[in-house]
Each structure stands twice: as C-alpha cells, then as structure tokens.
Amino acid sequence: MAVWTRDYLAPIFHRLTALPEFFGDDPAARQDLGPLTPVPECLGSIYEVNRAIEDLVARTMQLTCRGDKYRHGQLLGQAISPELFITQASLTQVVEQFRLDLARFRRQFLERQNAYSAESEAWYACCELRTEFCRIWAAVSLKLDETSWDQYIGRFRSMVSLAKHLAQAMNQRHERVPGPELRFEIGYLAIAHIVVMRCRDLSTRLEALRLVKTYGAARESFWESDKMYQFGRRVIEVEHDLKLDEADQPLGSVSWASLPPEERRVIDSYFDKDRIIHAQVAGASVTGRPLSLIMRDDNRTVYLRDEFIFLDAYFIYPDHGEWARDTFSYSQAVRVGDRIECSGQGGWDPKLRGVTIPDDIDDEISQAFENVDLALRSAGGTGWSQVFRVNSYHANLTPEILSKMGEQFRKWMPEHKPIWVALPVERLGVPEMRIEIQVVAYSP
C-alpha cells in the first residue's frame, strides 16, 4: 500500500494545488506552484514519471488560467507580462525533455523489468495523452486568438485515436456497469473533452464527443461525463452553426472542411452550478441549468451568450406531467447513461392536469401505451422501439386483458418482443385506474 500511495496517490494530490485556478472563487486560495521542478535526468521509476507529469499538468493548467486573464478577464486589453513568457518558454522546454525521457523510460525500464502488460500499456498511453496535453496547452497558453489552436489539428486527431485505444483497453479490464463510477486519476475523459472544446475540425471533435458519451466514467476526478457531454455538444452546435441528431451527427448538409470563424468560437464559459431552471424544449418540460459562453463579436468585443443545457436526468411531459411533479414531486422518466426508465403510466389524458381515466378498458389500455411512448420521448428516446422490459400492473387481470396487451405490443413493437411481467394487484394509485405500465428502454 505504501508503494502504491507513493507511486500514484501522492502525485495526484500535487495536481490538486492547481484546481483553485479552475474552481476557486477566492483569489487568496490561488497559490504559485513555486520553482519548476526539473525532470530527473533519467526517469527510473513509475513514481518519478507520475510525479513529473502531474507537476507539468498542474503548471500547464495554472499558466493557461493566467493567460485567460488577458484573453477575457480583468487584464483584457493589457500587454502580457514578460515574466509569463519566460515561464512559458521554461515550461515548454521541460515538457519536451519529459516527452523524450518518457519514451526512453518505456523502452528501458519496462523492458528491463519485463513489465509489459495491458495495464502498463494503458498507463503509458495515459502518460502520453497528458504529455501531449501539456505540449499543446503550453504553446497556446498566452495566445489571444482562438485560431491559434488550428495548427494542432493533426495532433488532436492523434490524441483522439490514442484516447479511443485507451478507452477500449480500460473498459475491457473494467466492464462498465450502470450507475455511479469514479476514477480519480485523469485518464482519457478530460482529454477527450478538451479536444471537443478546442479542436475546431468537426469530424475530430465529434469523434471525441462520442468518446465522452460512450466510454466516460460517471465522474473522472472533478469532471462528470454527462455534464461534459451536454456542454461539449452544445458548443459544437454553436460554433459550427448546426444541429446534431440523436446520434450526434449533423442534421442537413455541412461543410466538413470548414473551420468556424473567430467570432463563432467559444473562448471560455461560466456555469452557475447552484441555479436550476425549468424550460420548454420540443414540447417537453425539462429541468436544467443556465450556461454562459464567453465569445467575441465581429469587433473583437467580449460578450456573454446565454445557453441552456440539460444537466438533470429527470424529465416530464407537459400538462399531466407538470401536475404530477408539482403535486407529488416525481418525474415521468429518468435517463441513466443509455437507459431510460419511466414511472408507471396509466390511461389518463396527458393533456389534462389531474387524473382522468376513460370508461372503456380498451381505451384505457391504449392510452397507457400512448403515455409510455410520450414519457420515453420526453427523455430523448424514440419510444416503444427501444423498450426491452415491460412491467404491467392490473386491477383486474383476465385473459381478455392479456390479449389486449398482446395487440398493443404488436402495434408498438412490430420488430421485436420485449420481456414482460404482468402482475395482478388489489388496486392502483387512483381508484378508477385498472392498468399501469412501467418500462425500461435502451437509448444510445
């Protein structure tokens, strides 16, 4: 345990010294990291590699934040301090030295120790990604123009390819399961998100966005995959002036080779984590948080563009869904990764506040199926075509009712047959109700 703590945990805590630059509001909490730690002349252990790269990552993050003050912060319009350029030159030199030493370490140390394995290769790929992150960010940390990132599109493509390989390797070793997942080390998730934000080549950033959505842990260090995905997707739409479909592909024709002009590029963002608002999107009432994008207009004047992103996984549909939320404090559907689960849906009229049930049982069953479809679509699904499990609850379960359920299954799911449990119950939530349907759907 002591060796593991030294090799992996201690370097991570060193990285935390730079986090106030990103997440802290108190300038007094921000500290200088002191003199740049020289990379050992010969990297001889995993600890030395991890310690050196975490120091470089922390300093690159800090230098980038210092540059932000001149790009859009309180020093906007002022000349950049010469001392920062000296720091940048020194950092760039040390990063390049570390990159060469890292390759030498892999050849000599791992071969000498006969330490090649899937685990060691994944660790080395992670080191490569973070090193490339430092190389690019150190180079552009004091640039004032967002087009400065464009000269690194080739490197961004290589990073995405490496991140994809790493993601597949990590998920083969640790089979992903639904629910919360935490990785405290910086792996491919944060790097993929950075590519989404700074690489303006559309095909490359869409591939990086797919990595965030498909392979991202629920939380990696201080970054959460669902927030990173929603945020990155919206920035892509804003910068390229397009809309993405459910598969994150552009709707309509686009110019894949064109890069967005400077005035459409997002410099930075402000996210109010404590403010929650309700909005109507595509006819559904959704919950989310406001996002302010820092951009420049044609005259290079910095301004804030207000946006809305879905950070809450709970969804309701209008009218009845809003009434149920306000009255009983529950939602109609929840999305967890690629799964959508819906609350029990009865045969009520969804356009009315309250519970109004048809007299005819056939009409009630038909409407319950309609309401399930509505709930799934409110959460971004495509409806019954994605349902793989059905639970139905019946106040009067008869052969005729089962036959009617089968008819609805064939109507709504002609291409597949889900698993199904039908349970008789003494009564449902409202005395007039005779059926309630709950489903789970797979919606990638």
TrEMBL record:
<dbReference type="Pfam" id="PF01042">
    <property type="entry name" value="Ribonuc_L-PSP"/>
</dbReference>
<protein>
    <submittedName>
        <fullName>Uncharacterized protein</fullName>
    </submittedName>
</protein>
<keyword id="KW-0862">Zinc</keyword>
<dbReference type="InterPro" id="IPR052360">
    <property type="entry name" value="Transcr_Regulatory_Proteins"/>
</dbReference>
<keyword id="KW-0539">Nucleus</keyword>
<dbReference type="InterPro" id="IPR035959">
    <property type="entry name" value="RutC-like_sf"/>
</dbReference>
<keyword id="KW-0479">Metal-binding</keyword>
<dbReference type="InterPro" id="IPR006175">
    <property type="entry name" value="YjgF/YER057c/UK114"/>
</dbReference>
<keyword id="KW-0238">DNA-binding</keyword>
<keyword id="KW-0805">Transcription regulation</keyword>
<keyword id="KW-0804">Transcription</keyword>
